[in-house]
Design brief:
Chain lengths: ~300, ~270
């Protein structure tokens, strides 16, 4: 009886000790995470929820809004500028994946070419990525200038007439996309450079013994082994393209006649120029939703890739 | 002879890329060194004159103010991020608890988030907090949006620090805070360096929050100030180029002096050693 009691005592003592220990652990963990989590909730999570709520209102930003349900979203579906923006965003994605990344790969391969002055080449290749987007935009606006612009001077050499690059509907988008490529290709160059360094030298030596030429080595060794980097670069490019704003805002402001409008620039104009805050919130929430869907798709793909044991 | 001949296409591509990436910089600097009439006479000649009057004019127009604003807000935000991101990364990477995985995913999914989805609420928040149009308005969003990548970099790095070290410290009676300060933090230096460089350059160049949260010239950061110059310099191309050159110079100089660190930092942990 006494021993039983004693045992019960020790049991209760040890459980209370255990729970006080877990309690202390929970407290420690909370204290470590709290500062980051609070900032994150206030400036990231709460605003997203808030944006969704705003999107259900017809609201000018200052007076009390009127609840309109999903009306803003219905309007969006019938808004041709919204669809133009979405199409232009898609062009940014496609350019990033099919022009920027291959160019980045070529630049990275050049860094391993058996030529002199590689250090110098690689330093300069990286320059564009260091400059602020606003500065890049302003610089290129003047390079594209219809009269005094150096780009027109260049095409004159080949017998072409001057073009008003940024104010003509059929050239504006391409002109800005070239600048986007110019700015971001160096970033992918760095990612590919690191991946190429990681390819074991023996593979190439073996290929040399088999008498493979440079092209075969590239397609049978380098490219397959770079596949994971190409996939992750594409993910970065897609996500980055959905967020594109700065360069378009600075160079064209979405013009001419919405020819270079993106979801980002359109949302900004609706919110802070027209003060259609409710409608702008609906655009913003669509942007969030697209990013969410892309993220979930990437996570699912990643899950299956890991399951298959590839990479 | 044939080997040298074979290399010509390689040099051709290398130089083509060099012109593509480097020429705009030469154009910018060379135009900044011309006066207005010099620019209209010979808009395309490189380094035909070396006049510094544009640079002094740009300083007189308040570039210094924008410069200091950018420096202040980027520095404070980056230091705050380094502290609170390493604090959060410690339990996320080294302790087992119920919501660990979910919290981690919640934080790093911020990398995918379009800033636009938070703009209007953050704008309203800055008004109700009474910080609209001050640098304080930028601090919150700058810290918050630097957290995802920073936590990602730091947790990856912390996972590789051997557990045995902190177990030894625990036996010596160290608390978790003690282990964090004395064991983990000193070993984090390379990762913190990456966090510092990545976030500093991104915040130094940040545009959209500044555009929405700042309106008066006294509080403008460099990118916003440059955008403002565009109107004032619409006919004075050399003047604007001088402003662009000065704005780009600090980062370029830092890059030239510690290339490897900057490149690694900007790759943001996606490049491992």
């Amino acid at each position: 009886m006494e021993t039983q009691l004693a045992r019960a005592k020790t049991v209760s003592k040890s459980t209370s000790k255990l729970s006080s220990k877990t309690l202390k652990n929970v407290l420690t963990i909370s204290l470590f995470i709290a500062p980051a989590l609070i900032v994150y909730i206030v400036y990231v999570l709460y605003p997203i929820v808030s944006t969704f709520i705003y999107s259900l209102y017809d609201w000018d930003g200052s007076s009390a809004g009127t609840f309109v349900g999903l009306h803003n979203y219905l309007n969006l579906l019938g808004d041709s500028i919204f669809w133009t923006s979405l199409t232009n965003n898609t062009w940014v994605v496609l350019t990033s994946v099919f022009v920027q990344i291959p160019l980045g790969l070529i630049m990275a391969l050049m860094l391993f070419a058996p030529i002199k002055g590689i250090r110098f080449f690689s330093s300069v290749y990286f320059f564009p990525f260091l400059m602020s987007t606003v500065a890049i935009g302003l610089l290129w606006v003047f390079m594209y200038d219809p009269i005094n612009g150096v780009i027109n001077k260049f095409i004159n050499l080949f017998g072409f007439e001057n073009i008003a690059w940024l104010s003509e509907a059929n050239t504006a988008l391409i002109a800005v996309l070239i600048v986007v490529v110019w700015q971001f290709a160096p970033f992918y160059m760095i990612l590919f450079k690191a991946a190429i360094v990681g390819i074991p030298e023996e593979l190439y030596e073996a290929a040399n013994i088999d008498g493979a030429n440079a092209l075969r080595k590239f397609f049978h060794i380098t490219l397959p082994l770079l596949m994971p980097t190409i996939v992750s670069s594409s993910i970065l490019a897609i996500v980055g393209s959905l967020k594109a704003f700065d360069i378009f805002y600075v160079m064209t402001g979405g013009g001419p006649n919405h020819g270079t409008e993106l979801l980002g620039t359109y949302m900004f104009k609706q919110a802070f120029i027209n003060f259609n805050m409710g409608y702008a919130s609906a655009i913003a929430f669509v942007m969030f939703f697209i990013a969410l869907v892309v993220t979930i798709l990437i996570l699912i793909m990643d899950f299956y890739r890991k399951k298959k044991g590839a990479y | 002879m044939t080997v040298a001949f074979k290399k010509i296409p390689l040099y051709f591509v290398a130089i083509l890329l060099l012109v593509f990436t480097g020429y705009p910089f030469l154009y910018m600097i060379s135009t900044a060194l011309k006066d207005q009439s010099g620019f209209f006479e010979k808009p395309f000649s490189l380094f035909s004159s070396f006049k510094l009057e544009n640079f002094t004019a740009v300083f007189e127009m308040g570039l210094t103010r924008y410069f200091l604003n950018s420096l202040l807000v980027s520095t404070v935000a980056v230091l705050a991020v380094m502290l609170i991101a390493s604090l959060a990364s410690y339990p996320l990477s080294r302790m087992k608890f119920k919501f660990n995985r979910i919290l981690f995913l919640l934080f790093i999914s911020g990398m995918m988030l379009p800033i636009h989805a938070t703009l209007i609420p953050i704008f309203k928040l800055s008004e109700s907090m009474g910080v609209y149009d001050t640098l304080l308005a930028l601090l919150g969003p700058y810290i918050a949006f630097s957290l995802p990548i920073s936590i990602f970099i730091l947790t990856q790095f912390m996972q590789e620090i051997p557990k045995s070290l902190e177990e030894a410290a625990k036996i010596d009676g160290c608390t978790h805070f003690g282990i964090f300060w004395r064991v983990v933090l000193p070993m984090l230096t390379p990762a913190l360096m990456t966090v510092l460089i990545y976030n500093f350059i991104h915040l130094w160049n940040e545009f959209i929050f500044a555009l929405v949260l700042i309106s008066s010239p006294e509080s403008m950061t460099l990118p916003l100030g440059l955008q403002d110059f565009k109107g004032e310099f619409s006919v004075n191309v050399p003047g604007l180029m001088a402003a662009l050159t000065l704005a780009s110079l600090p980062i370029l100089v830092v890059y030239l002096f510690s290339q490897e660190k900057v490149v690694k930092g900007l790759a943001g942990g996606s490049v491992k050693e």
